[in-house]
Specification:
Elements lengths: L5 E3 L7 E3 L2 E5 L2 H17 L8 H20 L5 H7 L5 E10 L4 E10 L3 E8 L6 H18 L4 E8 L5 E6 L2 H18 L11 H5 L22
Helix pairs in contact: 1-4, 4-5
Length: 229
């Protein structure tokens, strides 16, 4: 994979500047769906808080799976993997993706490469396919597609962490691509001050948020209504 020169953004943590453009972590697409204002508090305002127990457990589980994978994995470049996968099935973990064009980057938990398709897997605790989780995996798909520049089908999938249970999957079609590009453009507009960060209106999210002590935009009880479709 070609390396791109980058430098930290002077004011926003976790944002890099690549070829004169902002580049943010794909995991922010998940944060944005949970509470957009949390990105402002942590990365723009610079609040420092301890990771939650779930975050620590998730990091440990990722490290364990990666260590197990590395015991039997054979080293190969990105181009070698693409070429080999045209005639054989391959698997890779913690796969780095960077798109300078879309201004996103991250590490895919697991990628399956076959002669017919690429399957992009993101591990999550639990088995509920939240919209925010789907947005994150679509972000990985978009960055991967931008790097690969092939016509093979791409499938996004969510898997229950620590298991083989894929509880959600879908084709990365034109509709998914259009929607995630729009969301990415919104986050970029937030970073340059063209739009305002919007807090969640769901007080249940606020109660479980690790930034709640320092948040001045918490949702009020009774302000959120759930609707069953």
């Amino acid at each position: 994979m070609p390396k791109t020169k980058s430098q930290p953004h002077p004011e926003i943590s976790q944002v890099l500047v690549m070829e004169g453009h902002n580049n943010f972590p794909i995991s922010w697409l998940n944060k944005q769906g949970y509470c957009e204002y949390s990105i402002y508090l942590e990365n723009v305002k610079g609040l420092e808080v301890q990771p939650t127990r779930k975050m620590v457990i998730g990091t440990q589980e990722h490290a364990r799976l990666e260590a197990e994978f590395q015991e039997h994995a054979e080293p190969a470049t990105f181009q070698e993997m693409l070429e080999t996968s045209k005639t054989a099935e391959l698997l890779s973990r913690e796969f780095p993706v960077v798109s300078v064009h879309y201004g996103i980057r991250g590490f895919i938990d697991e990628v399956w490469m076959t002669p017919e398709e690429f399957i992009i897997i993101d591990d999550k605790p639990g088995t509920r396919a939240y919209v925010s989780s789907i947005n994150q995996v679509w972000g990985y798909c978009l960055a991967f597609q931008d790097m690969v520049k092939e016509n093979r089908t791409i499938i996004g999938a969510l898997r229950e962490r620590g298991t083989d249970n894929i509880f959600w999957s879908a084709y990365f079609d034109q509709k998914a691509k259009t929607n995630i590009k729009s969301l990415i453009e919104r986050i970029h507009s937030l970073l340059v001050g063209e739009k305002q960060f919007i807090p969640t209106s769901n007080p249940r999210k606020c109660r479980s948020c690790r930034l709640k002590v320092n948040c001045n935009r918490k949702a009020k009880p009774g302000s959120f209504k759930s609707v069953r479709s």
